[in-house]
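anyone seen this seq b4? input:
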Amino acid sequence: MNTHPSDHGLMDADARFDAALRARHAAALAQLSLQVRAQLAQRRGAALRGQQPAPRQHRLRFAMAGFAALCALALGVRLYPQGVPSTPAAAPSAQLASSTGGSLPLDEDPDFYAWLGSADAPRLAME
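predicted toks r here
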């Protein structure tokens, strides 16, 4: 093993660091409750014996998730419209077009669309 003068300072720093960490670990362990210490001892013993932890039962979680899915399905069925109109949504405009002689009022006035593209339309809309 090489022992240079600079190695002793490095080893002393490592030893001090290890001692500080061990002291903090001991202080943290001293503040644990008896119940937590007992659980840790049981788990450590089981790990040393090679036992696997018991699988958690998720029955309650699965039941709650299933109930939530069932409620969402029932709500969706309840809010879904039962009677869908057989005519498309454009039927009112078709009725308006037939009552005005075959064309809509906006179709008859191309100047309206030209005015929408002008610089006056945004200024008027801001007012």
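The CA atoms of residues 24 and 54 lie 32 Å apart. The radius of gyration is 40 Å. kinda curious what u guys think
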